[in-house]
Amino acid sequence: MKDLNNKVAFVTGGSKGIGYGVAAALSAMGVKVGITSRHLKEAEKAAKEITSKGKAEVIGIEADVRDFESQKKAIAQVTAKWGQLDVLVANAGVGHFGSIEDLTPQQWQQTIDTNLTGVFYSLKAAIPHLKKTNGYIFTISSLAGTNFFAGGSAYNASKFGVTGFTQAAMLDLRNYDIKVTTIMPGSVATHFNDHTPSEEDAWKIQSEDIGELVVDLLKMNQRALPSKIEIRPTKPPQK
């Protein structure tokens, strides 16, 4: 997609963090964007902020990635407004961390339903539209999608799943000229897991860095497909 002006994107979990950074970067390039959150006011507030700084309209939509019908309805809202869908960014995620002994069944279920099943639902709802535009799918996995750690059983399981799911989906869809890439960030300065970003997070990847990466990938020649990309801070603090 050499010219991104007037393309249309759908970003899950776009009211803050990585999703917000990606939506802002896309809007700055002239891409119209629908962002979702489970809380409509948060989605609309973020959409208004991004629109005021960007070059294309962003709309906020209430949707829950854990509900397939909710995802279909949200994408239908985007296509009804703008007539097409060119880019999907399956970003929404949660994190519950702790020993397997302490992890509750509810925390496990929420993590898997949001981080893994939610990605499946997002792709499933978007694919019919992306086949019409030879679109591009991005999933947001994590370095935790190939590197396990103590206290990460639910999160590791979900992100290992996203990584594997995305690579298989890439093979399924590339004959439709749909590109599929999973982005695997390390430490990112976001509100993830109730964290409040501060000056101490300056060494971390910033959400706008992921946005810049998405834009660069969209502009890449159609013949080239970076299917899995790891991105980490250049210089983390020494332990």
UniProtKB/TrEMBL annotation:
InterPro entries with a match to the protein in the record: NAD(P)-bd_dom_sf, Sc_DH/Rdtase_CS, SDR, SDR_fam
A Pfam family the protein falls into: adh_short
Family: Belongs to the short-chain dehydrogenases/reductases (SDR) family.
Name used for this protein in its record: SDR family oxidoreductase
